[in-house]
């Protein structure tokens, strides 16, 4: 089982990666 701290780290990284995808998608469409 993961500790609470590990879960927070996983959730934070998921949020960061999803934001990065949302930001890069429009840029990729505009550049294409």
Molecular structure report:
The protein has 32 residues and is mostly helical. It has one domain (1-32). The chain is 88% helix and 0% strand. The longest helix has 28 residues, at 4-31. It is rod-shaped. Keywords: Membrane, Transmembrane, Transmembrane helix. The chain crosses the membrane at residues 12-31. It comes from Arsenophonus endosymbiont of Trialeurodes vaporariorum. This is Molybdenum transport system permease protein ModB.
Concise synopsis of the structure shown:
This protein is mostly helical and 32 residues long. It has one domain (1-32). It is built from one helix and no strands.
Sequence-ordered SSE layout with sheet pairings:
Blueprint: H1 4-31
**What is the helix tally?**
1
C-alpha end-to-end distance: 44 Å
Mean pLDDT: 94
Our estimate of the beta-strand percent is under 5%
Give the class from helix and strand content and strand pairing: mainly alpha
Give the overall form: rod-shaped
Tally of domains: 1
Low-confidence stretches: none
The total of beta strands comes to 0
Proportion of helical residues? over 70%
**SSE order, one letter for each helix or strand:** H
């Amino acid at each position: 089982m993961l500790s609470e701290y590990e879960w927070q780290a996983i959730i934070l990284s998921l949020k960061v990666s999803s934001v990065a995808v949302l930001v890069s998608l429009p840029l990729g469409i505009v550049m294409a």
